[in-house]
Amino acid sequence: MSHFNLKSLTFYGVMIGSVLVLFNIVSVYGESSLKAPPNIAGNYLLENLNLPDCLKSEKLSLTIAQSGIYLTGRLTTENQTIKLNGLLENITTESVTTRSRPFSLMGKTNKLGNCPLAADNSSPEIQLQTQFQHKTLVGQMQWSNLKFNFTGTPQNSPDNQKSTH
Amino acid sequence: MHLEPIVLVLIQIVIVIGFSRLMGAACRQIQQPLVIGEIIAGILLGPSLLGLIAPDFKLWLFPIETLPYLNILSQIGLIFFMFLIGLELNPKYLSGQLETAILTSHVSILVPFSLGSILALLLYPLVSNADVPFTAFALFLGAAMSITAFPVLARIITENNLQGTKLGTLALTCAAVDDVTAWCLLALAIAVARTETITGAFPTIILAIAYIALMVTFGRKLLQTLLIHYKRTGRLTQLTLAGIYMGIVISAIITELIGIHFIFGAFLLGAVMPKNAGLVKELAEKTEDFVLIFLLPIFFAYSGLKTEIGLLNRPELWLLCGAVLAVAIIGKYVGTYVAARVSGVNNRDASALGWLMNTRGLTELIVLNIGLSLGVITPLLFTMLVIMALVTTFMTSPLLEWTYPKDKIRLDIVEQETPELETESTVPIYRVLVAVANPLTQKGLLNLAIAIAGKGPAIVHPLSLIEFQENYQFQTTPDQTNRLIKQRRDALENLIETLEPPEIRQNIYPIVTSAHDVSTETVQIAIADKADLIIMGWHRSAFVDNRLGGRVGKILNNSPVDVAVFVNKQKPQLQSLLVAYADNIHDDLGFSLALRMLFNNTDRHLKVLRFNSLSPNSEESSYEFQKMLAILPESVKSRIEIIQIKESEPIKAVIEASRDVDLTIAGTSRTWGIERQTLGRYTDELAQDCHSSLLITRRYSRVISHLASLISEVPVS
Questions:
Q1: Model confidence over B652-668: pLDDT tens digits?
Q2: Same domain for A135 and A54?
Q3: Which of A35, B306, B328, B599 has the most CB atoms around its CB within 10 Å?
């Protein structure tokens, strides 16, 4: 088969054309029907806290890294970094634009700042239930027998990129 | 401990280069390309291992503030590496089976590209984010699936000695076409990712096409003047090199400004560079060492720092990773295989081609880093695709070995070099493999091989192996390897032309090929050739105080073929022979070879210095010796003189007797101080003090008779 004759040129034309049509169909469908999660990655300083005494002197910050719906995070105190994991689920067109979908981040730690794990509560699980209100993160943190609300304001840092883990 | 960023960067570089080399060497041990080891080294230094087992140390060694420096170094490395890839891309590669290659390479891109864009439908909602347009994501994923790493594939082909075969040339042509097509696809994906729509990317695409056209026409013309200058001066001056390097960077800047990526500019300049053998060789050799040894490992390390296998922390993520891997492998393999079969390529070659085209290696890593830096792919998808690149590159060599075994390739090489000999009777053809390291200095070795083989039904294969220490030098590109093989073959053929008498030359068929381990390859070729004897020269190893150490020792110890090592004392004649015989199988071999030499030349005579050992089998051996003598024709027997010796120091007796002969032959036995296990200074005594040339023999097979092709009734010792 010589690729300069009409037959093979037609073959290549049909082959490349089919792939272009396929890509076009996939592309149109993807653009119109598929919703990827909104970008929520960033560094947030946790403020306005109704903090217990053992955490009052601490500066708490939350770093969220994101790969699609899969989230990882770091809750940082003065001397401690707690690793967190989470998922962004049930993405809708509205939630993509407003980033309004609530999500949670979970991890484990035996102490939080100067607060020890309560003797009667052996579960070291820490949970942050949160959602965006405009650019601010609002939510509630729960660990041991502690439960308090927080507000997260975005911080500029070299880490704070579009989407990074 | 606080260190200035520059000090930390320097420490990072030392660790990165050292660790890359270490991992590269480990991969070489398991027959994998060096690049795999370097990629793995980068990953291990990142969060996937070092960050996991020593997070504080990793944070100290690679703090965030030093990463921009590493990034810049790695990007500079990438620019020059892309130039080298372009430089390596020779239109010569497009000459082999172009029709089949064009069809195969197009299908091998279109199938994985289509499957990749369909896979994007599954991946986009899960691992991308809303800032990335679906079209750019799908285009990028499709391009990532379609990649074939031309440079890694070219090395695998050279390593397997496929460069001269139909499969090798077809694979190279396909990969070259793939390479160019995939870079175009990537440029399109980048343009779309940056402008967010296909229509928005049109100005970038038009500018890119205009720049390519400019480089192919005006750029090439300008570079022709460089070639004229090079031909006039005969070398690449520092000033010329400075001009070329400036050109690379300027071209990189232009493509970056156009909106594709700076790597394309560097690649393009390399691709349009005149492919004059001397110019390309000098330019590549001057550039590659620093880039490949120093800068490229930094690129791998920088990539590794961004690869976090720990992100795949859910079973469903491993399933997604499996899907990525399956689409990449199946898409490439099926596309290539079907197209090759349709083009008339046989089943085995089509299958081998399918695996070869799956090599993604370094090129894929370059593409992925661009995707990550543009934000088109997320770190999780980046990690999955890095795993895919590693697996697809890692599997190529074993799968190629499975479909196209090296033994088969060796057999093809040997058969190619061996004519169909017409023998009238059932007399077996006697085959001698002569390991010729340097054709200029080993005429004596070849003369000896001819003296042993004779004019009868015999073949002498002078084997010259071109050893590659590194597997990523310019020297190891298929084109360059072919050039080196041709040079060596010419030298060998010139040597053969000087051998006398002329009729002896018709039985000599040189084998020239490349190898990474000369001793292993020699043994393997001897097996493929069904050689009766390997003859090689004696040399002192640079590192071991043992003349039978190093390569010679390795062949002596590992070869399942009889071996003779020649210590040439520059005696032109091989008329008077001396065999030091002490009733063991290695001396039997020496005696057989001496008898062959007697058969082959009626002027030769042999003195056998028989040492009566206290060996329990000496009577039996003595019987074998007598039996061998008994079957010899009188014309041969009359030229043999047997002398019994009973001295306490047989080596001295042999040395003394060697004064009057041209060649002394001794087995690797304790009697002569050349036992294999105690090789070393004892061996040196005989080799150094022997007045004639010396042939040390080591028998492996008791079945093979070295006299069978000369006389019909031969005892098997």
A1: 888 888 888 899 998 87
A2: yes
A3: B328
* A106 inside 8 A of chain B by CB: no
- Contact residues, chain B to chain A, C-beta under 8 Å: 64-65, 99, 102-103, 106-107, 110, 113-114, 117-118, 120-121, 123-135, 137-139, 142, 308, 311, 313-314, 317, 343, 375, 378-381
**Two tokens, residue B29:** 């041990």
pLDDT digits (tens, 9 = 90+) for B212-257: 999 999 999 999 999 999 998 888 889 999 999 999 999 999 999 9
Residue type, position B315, single letter: P
User: Could you please report the per-residue DSSP string of B430-444?
Assistant: EEEEEE-S-TTT-HH
A69:B126 CB<8 A = yes
Distance CA A165, CA A67 (A): 7
Residues A71 and A116 in one domain: yes
Rounded to whole angstroms, the Cα distance separating B174 from B19 reads 34
For residue A158, which residues of chain B lie inside 8 Å, CB to CB? 64-65
CB B185 within 8 A of CB B113: yes
Q: Which amino acid is at B545?
A: D
- Whole-number Cα distances in Å, B323 to B147, B308, B330: 17, 19, 10
Q: Which chain B residue's Cα is nearest to A73?
A: B311
Residues B129, B135, B139, B140: what is their CA dihedral angle, to the nearest 10 degrees? -20
Instruction: Enter the CATH code of domain B83-292+309-407.
Output: 1.20.1530.20
Q: Are residues A50 and A28 in the same domain?
A: no
Contact B64 A96 (CB under 8 A): no
Q: In angstroms, rounded to a whole number, what is the distance separating the alpha carbons of residues B505 and B521? A: 25
CB B586 within 8 A of CB B699: yes
Tokens 């020649």 sit at which residue?
A: B566
Looking at residue A15, its pLDDT comes to: 87
Instruction: Tell me the ipTM for this assembly.
Output: 0.87
Helix (H) or strand (E) holding B320: helix B315-342
Are residues B413 and B514 in contact, defined by beta-carbon separation less than 8 angstroms? no
CATH superfamily of B567-717: HUPs (3.40.50.620)
Interface test with A, best of B103, B119, B134, B314 (most A CBs within 10 A): B134
Residue written as token pair 């997604």: B320
Tell me: the pLDDT tens digits for B187-214?
A: 888 888 888 777 888 888 899 999 999 9
A1, B103: Cβ pair inside 8 Å?
yes
Q: In sequence order, which residues have a C-beta less than 8 Å from that of residue A139 and are 6 or more positions away?
A: A128, A129, A130, A131, A149, A150, A152
Q: What secondary structure, in 3-state letters, does B83-152 show?
A: HHHHHHCCHHHHHCCHHHHHHHHHHHHHHHHHHHHHHHHHHHHHHCCCCCCHHHHHHHHHHHHHCCCHHH
- Give the mutation candidate from A82, A103, A163 for the B interface (greatest B CB count, under 10 A): A163
A68-78: b (≥16 Cβ within 10 Å) or e: bbbbbbbbbbe
CA distance A47 to chain B (A): 25
Query: Percent of chain B having pLDDT more than 70?
Result: 88
As a whole number, mean pLDDT of residues B312-319 equals 92
What's the whole-model pTM score? 0.78
Based on the domain organization, do A23 and A50 belong to the same domain? no
Cβ pairs A/B, distance under 8 A: 116
